[in-house]
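User: Okay, second chain of the day. Same drill as before: sequence in, structure tokens out.
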Amino acid sequence: MIENSIRSAERDGPAWRVVTPEEIAELFGGLIDEVDRGSLTGEFAEHMATGSREALRESYWGWVDDDWAFTKAWGFDLGTVSAPVHIWQGGHDKMVPFVHGEWLASHCGGACPHLYPEHGHLTLAVDSIGAILDELVAD
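Assistant: Same drill. Structure tokens below.
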């Protein structure tokens, strides 16, 4: 897994370091479907391209470290979490499978699931940012 992450970062990192808003949807490739692809326009495409360039400005090790976090135990039992934990997940998410959001919601003691089959990974940020912020402020 980690070796694959490093190879992927080495292979794809240079393109992500210089990606433009017009190129970002294509660069995501199979990690997005038509739902998320439709959200990568205008200001959001600019935001994503700028963020990608900045994130990889020095190196790709943060990207690899993020992947490592998926493979390690978190050091606590999710069932013991009693504080509200909002879990936002879209059914069109190609980066994090929908079943993962369902699993997390069913195993986290303080889960407040927001599982939307019609959304993707990115459309939640575009279409639901107001609702997400409202939920966080309310808690």
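Residues 34 and 92 are 9 Å apart (CA to CA).

User: Thanks, on to the next one.
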